[in-house]
C-alpha cells in the first residue's frame, strides 16, 4: 500500500512470481485422490479422508487476522495418508509416486507405514498403497501383502511388470480422476 499526499491509499500491483515447481513434487497423486474422495463423499459412495500429520507448534506470528506457523515439529512418525470406510469395510492406504520405469523402490515406504498396513490387514481392514508410475501415467492399487512378500524375500523394490500383472489398474477419468474404489471392488470384493 502506498499513502499518497492526499491520504488516498492505492494498491501496488505485485508482479507475478515464478512458481516453485519443486515444492509441489509428489503432490499430483494426492491432489487427484483428494478430488476423487470429494466425489465419493458428495455422492455418498464412501467416506475417506486425508489424515492430518500431528504437529507440535513451536512458534507463530500474527499476520492480519491469522496466526502463521513459523516453526513446528512432527510429534510422531506418520502412518499412512488416508483412511475411511467403504461398503462397511475400513480402508487405510498411502499414496506414492515414482519416476522409475522398471520398479517401485520399497525405500519410498517407511517401516512404520509397512507395520501399520500389516496391522490394519490383520484386523480385517483393507490396507494398500496407491502407486503412480509417472512415466506410464498409470496408477495401481498394491495390496500390503505384496509389499510384505517382497520384504520377506529381501527384495528392495517391486518390479513394474509384477505390479502390472498382479495389481488392479486404477481407471482415470473426468468426474473421478482416479477411481480407486473400482480397483478396491476388483481386489477385495471380487467384482469386475
Please tell me about this protein's structure.
β4 (55-63) and β5 form a beta hairpin. Mean pLDDT is 86; it is low at 1-25. It is built from five helices and eleven strands. Strands 3-6-7-9-10 form a five-stranded mixed beta sheet. With 192 residues, the chain is an alpha+beta fold. α2 crosses α3. Helices cover 27% and strands 32% of the residues.
Domain count: 1
| CATH architecture title | 3-Layer(aba) Sandwich
What gyration radius follows from the Cα positions, in whole Å? Answer: 21 Å
Q: Which class of secondary structure composition applies to the elements?
A: alpha+beta
Q: How many beta-strand runs?
A: 11
- Counted by DSSP, the helix tally is 5
CATH class division: Alpha Beta
* Fraction of residues in β-strands: 25-35%
The chain-level mean pLDDT equals 86
**Secondary-structure element order, N to C:** EEHEEEEEEHEEHEHH
| Helix content bin | 25-40%
Note the main sheet.
5 strands, mixed
In which order are the strands of the major sheet placed? 3-6-7-9-10
CATH topology: Trna Endonuclease, Chain: A, domain 1
Form type: globular
Cα(first) to Cα(last) distance is 60 Å
Low-confidence stretches: 1-25
What is the fold's blueprint, element by element?
Elements: E1 2-3, E2 9-10, H1 28-42, E3 47-50, E4 55-63, E5 66-74, E6 82-86, E7 89-98, E8 103-105, H2 111-122, E9 126-133, E10 138-143, H3 144-152, E11 157-159, H4 160-166, H5 180-188
Parallel strand pairs: 7-9
Antiparallel strand pairs: 1-2, 3-6, 4-5, 6-7, 8-11, 9-10
Amino acid at each position: 500500500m502506498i499513502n499518497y499526499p492526499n491520504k488516498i491509499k492505492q494498491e501496488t500491483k505485485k508482479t507475478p512470481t515464478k512458481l516453485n515447481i519443486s515444492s509441489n513434487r509428489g503432490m499430483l497423486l494426492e491432489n487427484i485422490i483428494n478430488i476423487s474422495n470429494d466425489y465419493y463423499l458428495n455422492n455418498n459412495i464412501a467416506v475417506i479422508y486425508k489424515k492430518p500429520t500431528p504437529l507440535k507448534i513451536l512458534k507463530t506470528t500474527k499476520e492480519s487476522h491469522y496466526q502463521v506457523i513459523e516453526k513446528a515439529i512432527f510429534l510422531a512418525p506418520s502412518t499412512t495418508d488416508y483412511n475411511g470406510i467403504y461398503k462397511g469395510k475400513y480402508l487405510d492406504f498411502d499414496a506414492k509416486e515414482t519416476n522409475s520405469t522398471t520398479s517401485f523402490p520399497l525405500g519410498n515406504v517407511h517401516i512404520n507405514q509397512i507395520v501399520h498396513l500389516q496391522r490394519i490387514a490383520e484386523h480385517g481392514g483393507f490396507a494398500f498403497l496407491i502407486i503412480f508410475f509417472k512415466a506410464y501415467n498409470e496408477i495401481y492399487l498394491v495390496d500390503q501383502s505384496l509389499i510384505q512378500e517382497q520384504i520377506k524375500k529381501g527384495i528392495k523394490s517391486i518390479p513394474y511388470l509384477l505390479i502390472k500383472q498382479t495389481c488392479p489398474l486404477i481407471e482415470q477419468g473426468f468426474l473421478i480422476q482416479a477411481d480407486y474404489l473400482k480397483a478396491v471392488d476388483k481386489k477385495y470384493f471380487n467384482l469386475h
